[in-house]
Amino acid sequence: MTTPKSSNNPLYRTFIEAGKQAGYPETKDVNGYQQEGFGPMDRFVTPKGRRSSTARGYLDIAKKRHNLTIETHAVTDIIEFEGKRAVGVRYEQKGEKQQAYARREVLLCGGAIASPQILQRSGIGNPELLKELDIEMVHALPGVGENLQDHLEMYIQYECKEPISLYPALKWFNQPKIGAEWLFNGTGVGASNQFESCGFIRSGDEEEWPNLQYHFLPIAISYNGKSAVQAHGFQAHVGSMRSESRGRIRLTSKDPKAAPSILFNYMAKEKDWQEFRDAIRLTRNIIAQPAFDKYRGREIAPGPDVQSDAELDAFVKQHAETAYHPAVAAAWEMMKWRSPMARAVFMALRVYASSMPRSSR
């Protein structure tokens, strides 16, 4: 597993240089000592240009161990309890109900969306919700499923005056060559997710830590590959790092296959709106730096006529979208449950106890 620092397009370095010219520092490692500034983005890619996912980076090796059994095509239903002690899980696999019991502890790692649902189905959650769904309460913990948050972002797009963007890669007649280079050499456009430079900045001096984050892409396109600008272009993805808006996740049924009720409650706080207005104006200033002079064409989005707060807000309302980074109150609520009997190991962010599952989110 590697985190390559080299880039395959000059626009990545241009973005970093423009950030420096706008008065921000350069950082060699945004996940290291100094996050604030512009620098290369860590990417989990193998030396052969393949995505190093959790499965490829860890499970492909760990699955050979004699003390690990991996069950696939399985849906966790509930955590089994003896009193208030978690002893195992009940799950469904290929239409059949299964059970697994723990000798030491149960680890809940269902992520931000699934973990609170599993807890609620297991009888851990808001007593009113559990009663409504006829779920026997194991422990009253109203915060489970609350405090849902996510990263929203938007694209600030420009045409590129030089023919160096990834636009040709969208043409079908270029894609066989791209695929072949990746397949046989592990190099080229196909060996990258194309997010190779980024930035973390403070929107104002009143902010102690960076509150805006950037990802740079040397093409003007949407996440789903549609709505591509039919010309050479580039874009900066930008959004708030710590939105104050909070939502929730709640069960709608005891059936583990039933869709939950999810309310992200995006942009519910005025500070979120102000940060997005600041983000657009600060991004325009970065792209206006001399480093981009030879590349910067017309502003595609929001567009040069979008200037007032009301106009910026309308753009955000229409174009902001999720960056797929949800987080929710599951782990924290579990910590609060066991905290009276726990001893915390702060470096590992682990709390020891024997009476309940340990949650990762």
TrEMBL record:
Keywords: FAD, Flavoprotein. Belongs to the GMC oxidoreductase family. Its cofactor is FAD. Residues 31-50 are annotated as: Disordered. Residues 111-125 form the Glucose-methanol-choline oxidoreductase N-terminal domain. The keyword Glycoprotein does not apply. InterPro entries: FAD/NAD-bd_sf, GMC_OxRdtase, GMC_OxRdtase_N, GMC_OxRtase_C. One of its GO terms (molecular function) is flavin adenine dinucleotide binding. Pfam families: GMC_oxred_C (PF05199), GMC_oxred_N (PF00732). One of its GO terms (cellular component) is membrane. This is Glucose-methanol-choline oxidoreductase N-terminal domain-containing protein. The keyword Plastid does not apply. GO terms for biological process: glycine betaine biosynthetic process from choline. It comes from the Bacteria.
